[in-house]
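**Polypeptide and fold**
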Amino acid sequence: MSTYNRLPIGFVKGEGSWLADEQGNKYLDCISGLAVCGLGHANKNIAHAIARQAQELIHTSNLYRIPAQERLADKLCGLAGMDKVFFSNSGAEANETAIKIARKFAHGSNIDRPEIIVAENSFHGRTLATLSASGNRKIQEGFEPLVSGFVRVPYNDVKAVARACKSNSNIVAVLVEPIQGEGGINIPNSGYLADLRGICDENNMLLMLDEIQTGMGRTGKMFAFEHSGIKPDVFTLAKSLANGVPIGACLARGKAADVLQAGNHGSTFGGNPLACHAALASIEEIIFGDLPGKAAVSGNKLLEVFNHKLASHRHVKSIRGMGLMLGIELETDCTELVVKALEFGILINVTAGRVIRLLPALNMSEDEKNLMADKLIDIVLQGGK
């Protein structure tokens, strides 16, 4: 189906931060498959883990215990300070699980028409519930009637959340991204999540964070909420959790951890042995290589370079980022730069129309990062010419 506006290029091989097309031309991948391949392409440790498990057991179903799933759950809960995990196959499915937790939690508190606060310019997925929760009219158009039960407020506006809670007794949860990715690398004030945590505590609401893009070391911490010194009641992971093998996870703690019981939710493929072994290998490499810490240092260096070279350029509106999640916002739409970048031998992404988004692999070498910066600066300064 014609659901994608694909670029006129196909890749057949990858190694680290590089991809090769059908003609053997090489490109520096600066978006890591949209934050999925955080450990680079054809990562040997991940490949070995997948190959070993594929020779032993790929799937049994969740009718039975899955030892690798249990180990992965223990590892994630230990790292995040959470109590339980539900495994699925994607970020959208993980967010669906969070939404179901919020609704089940509400009905357990005798709230029959629960509502969840979500943010403008957010993106939570393309299932009916998650696109309804998203603050993106473009992805919603044509799919009405949307799923009800969402109250939308401006992102990074704690007062708007407080007002909504005061006027609406049906609100049971807040669902936001620690940093908005698809919305344009929008970074909130440093106290934003802590303030939301306080509001949720005061009103017996769940704080739910979508860490699909920000999790697994991307922002300079294993999980972005760690920058705020708080813990959510629920948060979701996917994308780089298994470095390209489809997997999603919804983690919960405290009063949210036991909301879903047998028969309330399920997934045929979720948390199968193959995906879980890939995720375990990914986590091991992230921790062993201190990749979150290195991402924080590298991200700050790149921001300094971009600010030095581009901040005064007449077409550059803003440069922002955290860790290796970077955005350069131009004054006008610049989607054409994605195609132009191919001529420079790099892969970039433009989101929200005018924000160049960079999501390089966490283990990209210093030389590759310098090459990425040099080429991107040339693209912006030359207007892609």
